[in-house]
């Protein structure tokens, strides 16, 4: 009797089956993520063109139907065909390692992101701690790239980025401590479950200052406008990745946009109820409408898309801040406000203020 795929699967050793299942789950996360990164670049150019009343990409399309939709594919082909140039006195090992570190930090955090109740690669109890640890590694890729390039402009951009990220990571960390106090857990799934209900039950309302500070700090953390002093092309000719070309530059590009999607998704998970619907009590006799209005991954995607739109809106609207303004905002405004609001949240938790802070300590 010939062996079927099912019998072949059953005959595999259990450790190998476990590894194959994990690799399959990783593929299910990475493929949509990389596609989202590619088409986020298209969305950015289209939306900013619309906001600034000018044309976005409108030439490269599939058989002339969808104007501009093949632009990310054309960009990928262009990057693959460009030469990877080595600066003469660069440290070659670190020069190659830097973009890999940046991309790994941006992609690795997705291992603990819950897309729906039970739909997560690794349901880690200390998921929030893991997120803080893995995302903080991204700055090493930027610093190493600036130093290994043996370029003054690259090193200046790296030092700017390091100072900026340290300032805003502290504010982001304090904002996440507020979420931890409110939910009583470091597990991302349990943080979302603590926000069951409608809009009024989500953490954005009692943690509103932390919510605003977390997202703005996330914009600064990813070196996006108006906080893009690390890449200030009008000041330091593209900053820390000025010496990178071809796929070296493309990997930094991927890391930046993957980090943007990550910050947007985390903001939705921790402050806007994740996969929960804003219409929890809506009853309908139509099954399709009930599925759309009920909780599900589509709500997380919509909330993430909203924050990504804000990223693009900020870039189209605000000029780049001066370096001293960025440092003043991080150290003298965001950090003091988060510390004060943490005290407010702690008092509310001790007083078991419903509906947000009535979990057992």
Layout of strands and helices, then pairs:
Layout: H1 5-11, H2 14-51, H3 71-81, H4 92-108, H5 127-135, H6 138-148, H7 152-183, H8 188-193, H9 208-221, H10 233-236, H11 246-271, H12 287-293, H13 297-317, H14 323-350
Helix pairs in contact: 2-11, 2-13, 3-11, 4-6, 4-11, 6-7, 7-9, 7-14, 9-11, 9-14, 11-13
Describe this structure in words.
The protein has 361 residues and is an all-alpha fold. The chain has helices spanning 5-11, 14-51, 71-81, 92-108, 127-135, 138-148, 152-183, 188-193, 208-221, 233-236, 246-271, 287-293, 297-317, 323-350. The longest helix is centred in the N-terminal third of the chain and has 38 residues, at 14-51. The chain is globular and about 60 Å long. The mean pLDDT is 85.
List keywords for this structure.
single chain; 361 residues; mainly alpha; 14 helices; 64% helix
The major pleated sheet works out as:
none
Average pLDDT metric? 85
Estimate what percentage of residues fall within beta strands.
under 5%
Distance between the termini: 60 Å
Structure at a glance:
The protein has helices spanning 5-11, 14-51, 71-81, 92-108, 127-135, 138-148, 152-183, 188-193, 208-221, 233-236, 246-271, 287-293, 297-317, 323-350. It is mainly alpha-helical and 361 residues long.
